[in-house]
Protein backbone atom coordinates (compact mmCIF):
# COMPACT_ATOMS: atom_id res chain seq x y z
CA UNK A 1 0.00 0.00 0.00
CA UNK A 2 1.52 3.34 -0.97
CA UNK A 3 1.46 6.45 1.12
CA UNK A 4 -1.33 8.08 -0.82
CA UNK A 5 -3.61 5.06 -0.37
CA UNK A 6 -2.84 4.99 3.36
CA UNK A 7 -3.69 8.66 3.71
CA UNK A 8 -6.89 8.16 1.75
CA UNK A 9 -7.91 5.21 3.97
CA UNK A 10 -7.15 7.21 7.11
CA UNK A 11 -9.27 10.01 5.75
CA UNK A 12 -12.15 7.67 4.97
CA UNK A 13 -11.90 6.09 8.42
CA UNK A 14 -12.24 9.59 9.89
CA UNK A 15 -15.23 10.35 7.71
CA UNK A 16 -16.92 7.08 8.66
CA UNK A 17 -16.51 7.84 12.34
CA UNK A 18 -17.93 11.31 11.93
CA UNK A 19 -20.92 10.04 10.02
CA UNK A 20 -21.67 7.51 12.78
CA UNK A 21 -21.58 10.37 15.31
CA UNK A 22 -23.83 12.44 13.09
CA UNK A 23 -26.23 9.51 12.80
CA UNK A 24 -26.87 9.85 16.54
CA UNK A 25 -27.75 13.47 16.01
CA UNK A 26 -26.48 14.44 19.43
CA UNK A 27 -23.40 14.58 21.64
CA UNK A 28 -23.28 11.79 24.21
CA UNK A 29 -20.24 13.14 26.06
CA UNK A 30 -21.42 16.56 27.28
CA UNK A 31 -19.68 17.77 30.43
CA UNK A 32 -20.11 15.67 33.55
CA UNK A 33 -17.63 17.75 35.61
CA UNK A 34 -20.36 20.25 36.55
CA UNK A 35 -22.08 17.48 38.54
CA UNK A 36 -18.99 17.06 40.76
CA UNK A 37 -19.26 13.27 40.29
CA UNK A 38 -17.36 10.58 42.18
CA UNK A 39 -17.63 6.85 42.77
CA UNK A 40 -16.28 4.15 45.07
CA UNK A 41 -16.45 0.39 45.42
CA UNK A 42 -15.53 -2.26 47.96
CA UNK A 43 -15.61 -5.99 47.27
CA UNK A 44 -15.67 -8.67 49.93
CA UNK A 45 -12.99 -11.19 48.88
CA UNK A 46 -14.79 -14.08 50.59
CA UNK A 47 -18.29 -13.60 49.20
CA UNK A 48 -17.38 -11.62 46.04
CA UNK A 49 -20.20 -9.21 46.91
CA UNK A 50 -19.64 -5.58 45.95
CA UNK A 51 -20.94 -2.39 47.51
CA UNK A 52 -20.57 0.51 45.10
CA UNK A 53 -21.56 4.16 45.28
CA UNK A 54 -21.97 6.97 42.79
CA UNK A 55 -22.22 10.55 44.11
CA UNK A 56 -23.79 13.18 41.89
CA UNK A 57 -24.80 16.79 42.49
CA UNK A 58 -27.65 17.17 40.01
CA UNK A 59 -28.53 20.69 41.16
CA UNK A 60 -24.98 21.93 40.55
CA UNK A 61 -25.37 21.13 36.85
CA UNK A 62 -28.13 23.76 36.70
CA UNK A 63 -30.21 22.02 33.99
CA UNK A 64 -32.43 24.18 31.75
CA UNK A 65 -36.21 23.99 32.18
CA UNK A 66 -38.89 24.76 29.61
CA UNK A 67 -40.68 27.96 30.58
CA UNK A 68 -43.96 26.70 29.10
CA UNK A 69 -45.51 24.23 26.65
CA UNK A 70 -44.11 26.20 23.67
CA UNK A 71 -40.60 25.19 24.72
CA UNK A 72 -41.63 21.55 24.33
CA UNK A 73 -42.01 21.87 20.55
CA UNK A 74 -39.48 21.29 17.79
CA UNK A 75 -39.35 25.04 17.03
CA UNK A 76 -38.11 25.94 20.51
CA UNK A 77 -34.48 26.87 21.23
CA UNK A 78 -34.98 27.42 24.96
CA UNK A 79 -32.84 24.57 26.30
CA UNK A 80 -29.15 25.25 25.60
CA UNK A 81 -30.04 26.59 22.16
CA UNK A 82 -32.09 23.57 21.13
CA UNK A 83 -35.62 22.32 21.62
CA UNK A 84 -36.34 21.21 25.18
CA UNK A 85 -37.64 17.98 23.65
CA UNK A 86 -34.04 16.82 23.26
CA UNK A 87 -32.26 14.99 26.04
CA UNK A 88 -29.08 16.74 27.25
CA UNK A 89 -26.40 14.14 27.80
CA UNK A 90 -23.27 14.01 29.95
CA UNK A 91 -21.06 10.94 30.27
CA UNK A 92 -19.24 10.27 33.55
CA UNK A 93 -16.53 7.63 33.28
CA UNK A 94 -16.52 5.30 36.28
CA UNK A 95 -13.30 4.43 38.10
CA UNK A 96 -11.24 1.45 36.98
CA UNK A 97 -12.17 -0.72 39.98
CA UNK A 98 -15.86 0.10 39.57
CA UNK A 99 -15.70 -0.94 35.92
CA UNK A 100 -13.73 -4.09 36.68
CA UNK A 101 -16.04 -5.50 39.35
CA UNK A 102 -19.47 -4.33 38.21
CA UNK A 103 -19.09 -4.43 34.43
CA UNK A 104 -20.53 -0.91 34.26
CA UNK A 105 -18.46 1.47 32.13
CA UNK A 106 -19.87 4.97 32.49
CA UNK A 107 -22.93 6.87 33.68
CA UNK A 108 -25.04 8.96 31.34
CA UNK A 109 -26.29 11.92 33.41
CA UNK A 110 -29.00 12.59 30.90
CA UNK A 111 -31.52 15.39 31.40
CA UNK A 112 -34.94 15.30 29.80
CA UNK A 113 -36.36 18.86 30.22
CA UNK A 114 -39.87 18.08 28.92
CA UNK A 115 -39.90 14.40 29.76
CA UNK A 116 -40.42 11.87 26.99
CA UNK A 117 -43.01 9.31 25.85
CA UNK A 118 -45.06 7.69 27.18
CA UNK A 119 -46.06 11.21 28.27
CA UNK A 120 -48.85 10.00 30.58
CA UNK A 121 -46.08 8.29 32.58
CA UNK A 122 -42.82 10.18 32.00
CA UNK A 123 -43.93 13.55 30.60
CA UNK A 124 -42.21 15.85 33.08
CA UNK A 125 -38.65 17.10 33.71
CA UNK A 126 -36.52 14.20 34.87
CA UNK A 127 -33.11 12.59 35.03
CA UNK A 128 -32.16 9.46 33.15
CA UNK A 129 -29.18 7.98 34.97
CA UNK A 130 -28.15 5.51 32.26
CA UNK A 131 -25.43 3.27 33.67
CA UNK A 132 -23.92 1.78 30.55
CA UNK A 133 -22.21 -1.59 30.24
CA UNK A 134 -20.48 -0.41 27.05
CA UNK A 135 -18.12 2.47 26.28
CA UNK A 136 -19.26 5.82 24.83
CA UNK A 137 -17.38 4.83 21.66
CA UNK A 138 -19.52 1.68 21.30
CA UNK A 139 -22.64 3.81 21.76
CA UNK A 140 -21.75 5.87 18.70
CA UNK A 141 -22.39 2.76 16.59
CA UNK A 142 -25.89 2.35 18.05
CA UNK A 143 -27.94 4.13 15.39
CA UNK A 144 -30.66 3.57 12.80
CA UNK A 145 -30.80 4.57 9.18
CA UNK A 146 -34.61 4.76 9.38
CA UNK A 147 -35.85 7.10 12.07
CA UNK A 148 -39.57 7.38 12.86
CA UNK A 149 -39.02 10.92 14.16
CA UNK A 150 -35.92 12.81 15.42
CA UNK A 151 -35.88 10.72 18.59
CA UNK A 152 -36.61 7.06 17.85
CA UNK A 153 -35.91 4.40 15.26
CA UNK A 154 -38.68 3.13 13.02
CA UNK A 155 -39.82 -0.14 14.63
CA UNK A 156 -42.50 -1.03 12.08
CA UNK A 157 -40.22 -1.71 9.11
CA UNK A 158 -37.04 -3.77 9.10
CA UNK A 159 -34.07 -1.47 9.53
CA UNK A 160 -31.78 -1.43 6.45
CA UNK A 161 -28.52 -1.46 8.46
CA UNK A 162 -27.23 -4.04 10.92
CA UNK A 163 -26.81 -1.46 13.70
CA UNK A 164 -30.48 -0.58 13.29
CA UNK A 165 -31.66 -4.20 13.37
CA UNK A 166 -29.73 -4.81 16.60
CA UNK A 167 -32.24 -2.60 18.49
CA UNK A 168 -34.88 -5.23 17.96
CA UNK A 169 -32.87 -8.34 18.85
CA UNK A 170 -33.46 -9.11 22.53
CA UNK A 171 -32.05 -11.83 24.78
CA UNK A 172 -34.69 -14.31 25.90
CA UNK A 173 -34.55 -17.64 27.72
CA UNK A 174 -35.91 -21.00 26.50
CA UNK A 175 -39.43 -20.00 27.55
CA UNK A 176 -39.24 -16.81 25.53
CA UNK A 177 -38.97 -14.57 28.60
CA UNK A 178 -36.80 -11.48 28.43
CA UNK A 179 -33.62 -12.40 30.32
CA UNK A 180 -31.58 -10.32 32.76
CA UNK A 181 -34.49 -8.05 33.64
CA UNK A 182 -37.04 -8.28 36.49
CA UNK A 183 -40.01 -10.54 35.70
CA UNK A 184 -42.38 -7.54 35.53
CA UNK A 185 -40.41 -5.95 32.67
CA UNK A 186 -41.31 -5.86 29.01
CA UNK A 187 -39.72 -4.08 26.08
CA UNK A 188 -41.37 -1.03 24.49
CA UNK A 189 -40.37 -1.20 20.82
CA UNK A 190 -41.25 2.47 20.32
CA UNK A 191 -38.38 3.51 22.60
CA UNK A 192 -35.42 2.61 20.35
CA UNK A 193 -33.25 5.63 21.08
CA UNK A 194 -29.95 6.00 19.15
CA UNK A 195 -26.93 5.87 21.44
CA UNK A 196 -28.97 3.94 24.00
CA UNK A 197 -31.19 0.98 22.98
CA UNK A 198 -34.76 -0.22 23.40
CA UNK A 199 -36.13 0.50 26.88
CA UNK A 200 -37.70 -2.19 29.08
CA UNK A 201 -39.44 -1.60 32.41
CA UNK A 202 -42.50 -2.54 34.45
CA UNK A 203 -44.85 -0.93 31.94
CA UNK A 204 -48.07 -2.06 33.65
CA UNK A 205 -46.87 -1.14 37.14
CA UNK A 206 -45.70 2.42 36.41
CA UNK A 207 -47.63 5.21 38.15
CA UNK A 208 -49.13 8.11 36.19
CA UNK A 209 -46.98 11.17 35.66
CA UNK A 210 -49.02 13.24 38.14
CA UNK A 211 -48.05 10.82 40.92
CA UNK A 212 -44.47 10.16 39.80
CA UNK A 213 -41.98 11.17 42.51
CA UNK A 214 -39.67 8.18 43.01
CA UNK A 215 -37.01 6.44 40.91
CA UNK A 216 -38.17 3.87 38.37
CA UNK A 217 -35.82 1.16 37.11
CA UNK A 218 -35.32 0.84 33.36
CA UNK A 219 -33.02 -1.46 31.38
CA UNK A 220 -31.71 -0.98 27.86
CA UNK A 221 -31.71 -3.77 25.25
CA UNK A 222 -29.56 -4.03 22.13
CA UNK A 223 -28.34 -7.00 20.09
CA UNK A 224 -29.40 -9.54 22.72
CA UNK A 225 -27.46 -7.71 25.42
CA UNK A 226 -28.23 -5.48 28.35
CA UNK A 227 -26.88 -2.11 27.24
CA UNK A 228 -27.66 -0.11 30.38
CA UNK A 229 -29.26 -0.27 33.80
CA UNK A 230 -30.99 2.96 34.66
CA UNK A 231 -32.60 4.62 37.64
CA UNK A 232 -34.91 7.29 36.17
CA UNK A 233 -36.37 9.90 38.50
CA UNK A 234 -38.22 13.21 38.40
CA UNK A 235 -36.35 16.37 39.33
CA UNK A 236 -38.35 16.54 42.59
CA UNK A 237 -36.42 13.55 43.92
CA UNK A 238 -33.05 15.35 43.76
CA UNK A 239 -34.09 18.89 44.74
CA UNK A 240 -35.75 20.59 47.70
CA UNK A 241 -35.21 20.98 51.44
CA UNK A 242 -36.07 17.48 52.63
CA UNK A 243 -34.10 14.26 52.44
CA UNK A 244 -35.33 11.70 49.89
CA UNK A 245 -34.72 7.98 50.08
CA UNK A 246 -35.67 5.06 47.89
CA UNK A 247 -34.53 1.44 47.92
CA UNK A 248 -35.33 -1.76 46.12
CA UNK A 249 -34.21 -5.37 45.83
CA UNK A 250 -34.09 -6.82 42.35
CA UNK A 251 -34.21 -10.34 40.98
CA UNK A 252 -33.74 -11.04 37.29
CA UNK A 253 -35.24 -13.58 34.92
CA UNK A 254 -32.66 -16.20 33.81
CA UNK A 255 -29.83 -14.03 35.13
CA UNK A 256 -26.61 -14.56 33.18
CA UNK A 257 -25.01 -11.19 33.94
CA UNK A 258 -23.93 -11.98 37.47
CA UNK A 259 -23.02 -8.40 38.42
CA UNK A 260 -26.44 -6.79 37.86
CA UNK A 261 -27.40 -5.10 41.15
CA UNK A 262 -29.48 -7.21 43.54
CA UNK A 263 -30.04 -4.16 45.74
CA UNK A 264 -29.98 -0.42 45.08
CA UNK A 265 -30.85 2.74 46.92
CA UNK A 266 -30.85 6.45 46.23
CA UNK A 267 -30.48 9.14 48.87
CA UNK A 268 -30.76 12.88 48.28
CA UNK A 269 -29.05 14.99 50.93
CA UNK A 270 -30.56 18.51 51.01
CA UNK A 271 -27.60 19.93 52.98
CA UNK A 272 -24.99 19.03 50.38
CA UNK A 273 -27.24 18.71 47.31
CA UNK A 274 -25.56 15.37 46.63
CA UNK A 275 -27.49 12.28 45.58
CA UNK A 276 -25.89 8.93 46.38
CA UNK A 277 -26.73 5.86 44.38
CA UNK A 278 -25.78 2.62 46.14
CA UNK A 279 -25.70 -0.62 44.20
CA UNK A 280 -24.87 -4.04 45.62
CA UNK A 281 -24.46 -7.39 43.97
CA UNK A 282 -22.05 -10.12 42.95
CA UNK A 283 -18.79 -8.93 41.41
CA UNK A 284 -18.19 -10.23 37.90
CA UNK A 285 -14.71 -11.29 39.03
CA UNK A 286 -13.50 -12.02 42.55
CA UNK A 287 -10.71 -9.88 43.98
CA UNK A 288 -7.55 -11.84 44.67
CA UNK A 289 -7.13 -12.46 48.40
CA UNK A 290 -4.79 -9.65 49.56
CA UNK A 291 -1.08 -10.47 49.32
CA UNK A 292 -1.42 -14.23 49.69
CA UNK A 293 -0.87 -14.94 46.00
CA UNK A 294 -0.76 -18.66 45.38
CA UNK A 295 -2.11 -19.90 48.71
CA UNK A 296 -5.09 -17.52 48.49
CA UNK A 297 -5.83 -18.78 45.04
CA UNK A 298 -5.63 -22.50 45.76
CA UNK A 299 -7.85 -22.23 48.83
CA UNK A 300 -10.50 -20.55 46.67
CA UNK A 301 -10.31 -23.31 44.08
CA UNK A 302 -10.94 -25.94 46.75
CA UNK A 303 -14.19 -24.29 47.93
C1 LIG B 1 -34.58 -6.40 50.59
O1 LIG B 1 -34.26 -7.70 51.03
C2 LIG B 1 -33.80 -7.74 52.38
C3 LIG B 1 -33.30 -9.15 52.67
O2 LIG B 1 -34.24 -10.12 52.27
C4 LIG B 1 -34.96 -7.33 53.29
O3 LIG B 1 -34.55 -7.36 54.65
C5 LIG B 1 -35.40 -5.91 52.91
O4 LIG B 1 -36.52 -5.54 53.65
C6 LIG B 1 -35.72 -5.82 51.43
N1 LIG B 1 -35.91 -4.43 51.08
C7 LIG B 1 -36.91 -3.99 50.34
C8 LIG B 1 -36.94 -2.53 50.08
O5 LIG B 1 -37.76 -4.72 49.89
UniProtKB/TrEMBL annotation:
Presence of the UniProt keyword Signal in the record: yes
Signal sequence, renumbered to the chain: 1-20
Record key words, sorted: Signal
Origin: domain of life: Eukaryota
Entry protein name: Uncharacterized protein
Organism: Chaetoceros tenuissimus
Taxonomic lineage from the root: Eukaryota, Sar, Stramenopiles, Ochrophyta, Bacillariophyta
Amino acid sequence: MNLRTSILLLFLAGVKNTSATNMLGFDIFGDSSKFDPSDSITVDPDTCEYHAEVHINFGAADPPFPSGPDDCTMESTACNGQSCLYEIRNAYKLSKAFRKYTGFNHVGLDWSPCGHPPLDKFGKPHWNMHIFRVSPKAREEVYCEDMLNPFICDFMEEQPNIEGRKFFVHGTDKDGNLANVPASFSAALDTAVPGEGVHAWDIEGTVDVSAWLEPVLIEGLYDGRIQFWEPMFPVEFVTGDSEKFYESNETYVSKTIVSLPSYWSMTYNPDTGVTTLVIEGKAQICPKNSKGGKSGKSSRIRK
